[in-house]
Design goal:
The chain is an alpha/beta fold. It is about 40% helix and about 20% strand. The protein contains eleven helices and 14 strands. The strands form four sheets. It has a six-stranded mixed beta sheet, with helices on both faces. Strands 4-3-5 form a three-stranded parallel beta sheet, covered by helices on one side. β1 and β2 form a beta hairpin. α9 crosses α10. The protein is elongated, with a radius of gyration of 25 Å. It starts with 5 loop residues before the first strand and ends in a 12-residue tail after the last strand. The N terminus is likely disordered.
């Protein structure tokens, strides 16, 4: 099988020049090259000339247009793919796209991800745990590529486009209320990256539950992690080494909760006899931990499907309302939480 961009021509291999190649050499965006090719007038004369000269000298040949009835393609974009959480999102998008007879491209975001989007022929995009800068939004509008974000990094209003998320604040509240209701007074939280809206919302829910119970929030017990196992482990090792260690930890996601389990084991503590643990996500493996993990379920599959349906609507020319959808979370109580020893 030949590498991407290589084609057989007259029995020998030739390198096919792409719009991205021309854009790179000209120092412009793929959108600008597309405008020149389509005879648009909103390109500066010097830029147009430079692009046209490169198109000619590099013998650029546009791809044959695809059949009008071709299946639409959705591009699903992640910052990383090393988390089971991503698998759940992929499963939901792929399942809904298949039911709509659409294809899915899975890729990682990069500095020039929009150029790649155009080159791969994606009709719409679903970035995950992301935000779009103003120039990116403008470029996508120019290209006519609709976007729906799953779990936007920042606050999203109608002017920011379309997004799907979960009730993270309510989930953080429910997790902490559960621990406080069991009698825990020193409750730590290990959130995800501080710049993410979902992380901040879960911590805000935690703070609200503590304050509503008349408990002071000890800033030493509020940690910002990465949503990965090692962050949960590292923060928990530090928290559990304190002389006034917490009796419960609310981890910002299930992966970090698994790291907390290992830290407790290494500190000689038992879950939940010595330490109660709550996670967030309810990934399939959370019920197979020993003990099974109490966690906040968020509807990852339905979030992914809702984003896909919203994107399908945009591709069909409709404007989904509301532009921001938040799906409900719920607490799943298993065996990783119990009253602290002092209250038994």
């Amino acid at each position: 099988m030949l590498p991407s961009g290589i084609r057989m021509q007259n029995g020998s291999m030739s390198l096919r020049v792409t719009m991205a190649d021309i854009a790179r050499e000209a120092g412009v965006s793929v959108a600008t090259v597309s405008k020149v090719l389509n005879g648009r007038t909103d390109v500066a004369a010097p830029t147009r000339q430079r692009v046209q000269e490169l198109l000619s000298s590099r013998r650029y040949r546009p791809r044959r247009s695809r059949p009008a009835r071709r299946a639409a393609m959705i591009e699903l974009l992640f910052d990383a793919l090393d988390d089971p959480w991503a698998v759940e999102i992929i499963r939901g998008v792929e399942g809904e796209a298949r039911s709509q007879r659409m294809g899915v491209i899975i890729s990682l975001t990069s500095e020039r991800w929009i150029d790649g989007l155009v080159e791969r022929g994606a009709d719409g995009a679903i970035p995950v745990l992301s935000d779009l800068a103003g120039p990116e939004r403008a470029q996508l509008r120019e290209l006519g590529v609709p976007v729906v974000i799953v779990d936007p990094a920042g606050h999203s209003g109608p002017e920011d486009g379309y997004s799907v998320g979960a009730t993270n604040w309510a989930g953080g509240l429910a997790a902490t209320e559960h621990l406080v209701g069991l009698g825990h007074r020193r409750v730590a939280v290990i959130s995800g990256p501080a710049h993410l809206l979902c992380s901040r919302a879960r911590v805000d829910g935690y703070r609200n539950a503590m304050e509503a119970a008349g408990l002071a929030v000890d800033t030493a017990l509020v940690r910002s992690g990465t949503f990965h196992h090692d962050a949960g482990f590292a923060h928990a090792m530090d928290l559990l080494s304190r002389p006034d260690r917490p009796t419960a930890i609310f981890a910002g996601n299930d992966a970090q909760a698994m790291g907390v389990y290992e830290a407790a084991r290494q500190r000689g503590l038992r879950v939940p006899a010595d330490l109660s643990v709550v996670g967030f996500d309810d990934l399939p493996q959370s019920r197979w931990l020993a003990p099974p993990l109490t966690t906040v379920w968020q509807p990852l599959d339905e979030m992914a499907r809702a984003a896909t349906r919203m994107l399908v609507g945009l591709l069909g020319g409709s404007e989904p309302r509301p532009s921001r959808v938040e799906l409900a979370t719920s607490l799943i109580v298993r065996e990783s939480t119990a009253p602290p020893r002092t209250t038994r």
